[in-house]
Design a protein that fits this description.
This protein has about 400 residues and is α/β, with parallel strands linked by helices. Helices cover about 30% and strands about 20% of the residues. It contains 14 helices and 15 strands. Strand 10 (about 200-205), helix 8 and strand 11 form a beta-alpha-beta unit. It is elongated. The relative contact order is 0.10.
């Protein structure tokens, strides 16, 4: 085997992945297939062929593997990455240029033949996906953008942005400790973030109205602020910002007074109750909270839990417009169950000048790993480094929060 890549919805960074697609190239495809179906984590072999095999893993997820030649690999990888809508649009572009595109290659249509002919014509050699896009007169389109939502038109004009990369994150906010419903201490959370290469971390335990999450009252919050000051004094190479995830109450008031929030470095305002309100009421409630000068960012803007709970009714167009007006950051909550705000809204938010902050909503140290998924989702929303606040280095972030 010489090349191997994930494809399908996982490569495109979709928030829900129902199965896995793999594409490989090899001069000995049968050996690759025999090895694949015999892996110890395979529960059931659904299909075992010379170029395609399908299995179900012990975890219950289905996996398809396709093996092609090195020459066919870039075409197959593009095709099986999808989406279907992107592929249709790409094939139509090829036809308009007198070409034919399939999983087997990109071909010049043979003279006198129609585009729908079974005869492929002359292969246009492409060693990589980059060369495949170039052969169609397009800038390279990252997999995350391949949803036929304007990416082909942008690529034709050379307007695909340089998307944010997960290595550009310098810190993150909205993390919990054992002070509320987290599973690790402040020191453990900060130590893990530092170990991962971050320069700063924001602690935002729940406020008092989230009694089910052991939310902090004013006294406990002041004690935590002092604890963070002491931690920072002992760890000059890393900085912890003192924040709070403050509940947005039913009428849009906040769970702490302005005087209390003024003592914090930042505030995450979030809805945790009364989620059955109608759209107009919920939208007005959240906007009222965002208009408070001490609110830095809006947490998980629709309250959805993927595959478990539908988002509450809220007008995101008005929320985005409010964020543009007030300068409130909108969180991309990259908890595996949230991915909220949904990637489909970020292009609009970016164009309005709204800033994103990628937060894991981490309740234990292992959940910092979700930051990488968050960046994938930000890329899917067409976000660049300059659109994501926590790509800022520490000193710039100090000044930003100091405003």
């Amino acid at each position: 085997m010489t090349q191997l890549s994930v494809a399908g919805s996982l490569r495109r960074g979709k928030e829900i992945v129902k199965d896995l697609d793999l594409v490989a190239s090899s001069r000995k495809p049968q050996e690759v297939m025999d090895y694949f179906v015999s892996l110890p984590w395979v529960k059931t072999v659904v299909n075992h062929g010379p170029t395609k095999s399908s299995v179900i893993l012990k975890t219950g997820i289905a996996v398809d593997l396709r093996v092609v030649s090195d020459q066919e690999f870039p075409y197959a990888l593009h095709h099986f990455t999808g989406s279907k809508e992107h592929n249709v649009a790409m094939r139509q572009r090829a036809i308009a240029q007198g070409k034919k595109m399939s999983e087997w290659g990109l071909f010049e249509i043979a003279p006198g033949k129609k585009s729908g002919s079974d005869e492929e014509g002359k292969l246009i050699p492409c060693r990589t996906e980059q060369e495949l896009f170039a052969a169609l007169g397009l800038q390279y389109i990252p997999p995350e953008l391949r949803e036929n939502m304007g990416e082909i038109e942008a690529a034709e004009k050379g307007q695909i942005p340089r998307l944010v990369d997960w290595t550009q994150l310098k810190g993150t906010f909205h993390c919990h400790t054992t002070a509320s419903d987290g599973k690790n201490s402040l020191a453990e959370m900060a130590g893990e973030a530092h170990e991962l290469g971050l320069d700063y971390l924001g602690i935002a335990d729940h406020s008092k109205s989230s009694f089910q999450a052991n939310g902090l009252d004013e006294l406990r919050l002041m004690e935590q602020i002092e604890q963070i000051k002491q931690y920072n004094a002992k760890h000059p190479g890393f900085h912890v910002f003192a924040g709070s995830e403050v509940d947005i109450l039913k009428d849009g008031r906040l769970d702490f007074s302005d005087a209390v929030m003024a003592k914090l470095d930042y505030v995450v305002a979030s809805v945790h109750n009364a989620m059955s309100q109608d759209e107009e009421t919920m939208t007005a409630r959240v906007i009222r909270a965002m208009e408070n000068e001490y609110v830095t960012m809006l947490g998980h803007s629709t309250g959805r839990l993927l595959l478990q709970r539908e988002p509450y009714k809220i007008n995101l167009e008005k929320i985005i417009d409010c964020a543009a007006r007030t300068g409130t950051w909108i969180e991309l909550n990259c908890s595996n169950w949230r991915m909220d705000m949904d990637w489909r809204w970020w292009h609009r938010a970016r164009d309005k000048g709204v800033k994103c902050v990628i937060n894991p909503d981490a309740h234990r140290v292992a959940q910092f790993a979700m930051l990488r998924h968050g960046v994938t989702m930000a890329r899917k929303g067409w976000l660049r480094k300059e659109d994501v606040m926590n790509t800022m280095p520490l000193e710039a972030m100090r000044k930003e929060l100091g405003k």
